[in-house]
Amino acid sequence: MVHSTPSKTSSSLQRHNREQRKGSWRKLLLYLFSAALMVALVAGFWPKPTKVQTVSVVRSPLIVSILEEGKTRIRNRYVITPPVAGYLNRVTLRAGARVQARKTVLATIEAEASGFLDPRSRSEAQAHLNAVVALKMQREAEVNRASAALDLALKELDRADLLRKEEVISDQEWDDIEAREQVLSQELSSAKFALRVAEFEIEQAQAKLREVAVPDAEESIPLEITGSVDGFVLNVFEENARTVDAGTPIMEIGDPSDLEVELELLSTDAVGIEPGAEVTIEQWGGGVPMYGRVALVEPGGFTKVSALGVEEQRVKVRVDFLEPLPSDHKLGDRYRIEARIVTWRGDNVLQVPTGSLFRRGNDWMTFTVENGKARLRKVEITHNNGIAAEVVSGMEEGEIVIVYPPEGVADGVDVISDVHRAGG
To answer: For the whole model, what pTM was predicted?
Structure first.
C-alpha cells in the first residue's frame, strides 16, 4: 500500500508560499500607491514660486527731459506804421508777398498839410527824431557788444576743439561751448536786425520832419512807406482805405527762414532749464527730428488757464535751431511742434526701471531676487525720466530686481523669473 501524504503536504506549502508572495507584492504596491498619492497631495498643496519679470541693475547713459508743445515764430518781426496821420490808400500787398528794404512801396498815405503847420507837431517830430537817433546809438553798442562776445566764443571754440581731440575735455563740455557760440551768433543777428530797424526809423522821422517844414502846402502830401528789411508780408492789418493816426499798425513783415521756437513751460519745469540746453524738435510734419538749443528763459511768468480749467503759471522759453533750415522746408510762422528739452544727462549712471519702484511712506522701495526669494529693499533715487531712475544708494550693479511685482510678492516669498532682460 502506497501513502501520498508527504506529496500533498508539499503542494500545500507551495501554494501557501505563492499566496504569501502575492500578498507581499500587493502590500508593496499598496504602499507605493499610497506614497505616490501622498507626494502628489503634498506637491499639489505646496506653495509654488511666483512667476515674476526681472531685470538687471546696470550702468548706462540716462537722459531726463521735458516734453512740451510749442510753436515756431519768426524771430525778428517789423510792424509797418505811418509816421504821420492822414488818409491811407488801399493796401494792395497780401500776406506772402515778397518785399525789399527801401524799394518796395508797402503803403501810401495822403498826409494833410494843415496837420503839418501845427508847431506842436513840429516839436513832436523833432523829439521823435532825437529819440530814434539815441536808439540807433544804443543798437550800435549792442551790435559791438554781441560781436565782441561772439569773437571770444569762437576763440574758445577753437581751443576746445584742440582739447577735445586730445581728450582733455568731455563731449558734454564741448557741447556747452558750441552751444554758447551758436546762441551768441543768433544774438548778433538779432542785434543787427534791430540796428537796421533803428536806421529806418531815423529815415522815417527825418521824412516826417521835412514834411512839417513845408508851411505853404495847401494840398495833401503823398507819403510812400517802405520797409527797413527784406522779407515777406506776414499779416495785413489795414487793407481798406481810411483815415489813420500816426503809429497805426498797417502790416507786419519778416523773414520766414529766420525761425525760432517758442514754448510755454510750467514755471516748476522752467526753473530747471538753463540757456544752452539741448532741444529735440519733433512732430513738426517732417520725417526726421530737428535740433536746437535754449536761447532764453524769460524772467517773468504769466497765468494761463489749461484745457481742464486750471490756472497755471507759465514761462516763455525761446529755442534757436542748431542748423539753418533746409531751403525746401515747409515750416512757417506759428506752426505747431513738440519740443523735448534735456534738463539733465549722465553718461555712466546706476539705474533701475521705474516699474520696479514703489512708495512705502516717504521711502522708495523695490524687490530684489536673492537665492530664489524676493527681498524688500529700500533705495534712494534722484533723476527720473519716467522709464529709468538713477540709484544713489541701496543697490549695486548686477543685482536683480522685479519689474511690476504681481500681487502676492512679499519679502521672503519664493519667486521664479518668467522673463529676464538686461537693464538700461
So the answer is: 0.66
